[in-house]
Amino acid sequence: MNEPLLPALEQVVRNVEQVIVGKRNVIVLSLTALLAKGHVLLEDVPGVGKTMLVRALAKSFSAELKRIQFTPDLLPSDVIGVSVYNPKERQFEYKPGPIVAHIVLADEINRTSPKTQSALLEAMEEGSVTVDGVTRALPQPFFVMATQNPIEYEGTYPLPEAQLDRFLLKLHMGYPSPDEEIEMLNRLEKTAPLAEIGPVMSLDELLALQRKVADVHVSDTVKRYIVDLIQQSRQHEAVYLGVSPRGSAALMKAAQAYAFIHGRDFVIPDDVQQLAPYVLAHRLLVRPEAKWDKFDAEAIIGQLIARTPVPVPGRR
């Protein structure tokens, strides 16, 4: 689909494109997750611009960005914060961790243990953190963009299924083409592009757009199409565990945001098809024998889309 974007969001995309060359689709999908109040998992090899993308997005909204470098010795308290006793006041005071920010870069999240990874679960699902029995709301908007290296790399831990399920989208950056890489070198020759960009939208404007996304209409026909796709995932012969109901809700929310970004107040089946690989693939557990045949989750999602009848598009 080559629909134009809303002018305000097109400006955000172009702002980020001053830093990230040739990855428009990844930028648009990241904005989709942000507007849907979801989170993004970026999986790729080091050095392809994952961290730069997050930093460019934060600068585009003048949002507070905090980075958590996940390492094997990182503790949950290093993420969510701790209560420290103040002898002068004779009481414990909460010292916030780096999770307390508008945009959180969870860098190389799969280099730490599952116990520390789980420290993000409440924050990503509820928008709050609990320390010593006290629950505190996180600032809004709140957006986690986590990066991870492919699991084949040394010193990595697979993300638990419960953690993966909290990410609305899983994206891959990929290597640039030769022309894109030359353009990147040209931009880096004399200046640092990230230092040159500034905010193009305020946080209040972003919050207003998030509220409007919830008003995007999803017809019963499109809802049925989403459910049919999900049901097919649970019956596929190569799938050990299909997509959960949380995945159904995630696909609908992402489709609402994607339609809104493209200037529509209603979702069409094309939106669902465009987003299904990014929303559903990481929620599938593929049977080992299918993996041996190099039949991965993305290929299965492609089959599901091909097998599921597409309803006739209709606004109402």
TrEMBL record:
Signal peptide residues on this chain, from the entry's feature table: none
Q: Which CDD domains match?
A: AAA
Record-linked InterPro entries: ATPase_AAA-3, CbbQ/NirQ/NorQ/GpvN, ChlI/MoxR_AAA_lid, P-loop_NTPase
Name the SUPFAM superfamilies on file. P-loop containing nucleoside triphosphate hydrolases
Q: Name one GO molecular function term.
A: ATP hydrolysis activity
Protein's UniProt keywords contain NADP: no
- Enumerate the UniProt keywords alphabetically: ATP-binding, Nucleotide-binding
Gene3D superfamilies listed in its UniProt record: Magnesium chelatase subunit I, C-Terminal domain, P-loop containing nucleotide triphosphate hydrolases
Q: Is-annotated flag, keyword Nucleotide-binding?
A: yes
Domain ChlI/MoxR AAA lid, residue spans: 232-301
Domain ATPase AAA-3: from-to ranges: 39-169
Annotated family: Belongs to the MoxR family.
Identification of the protein by name: Methanol dehydrogenase regulatory protein
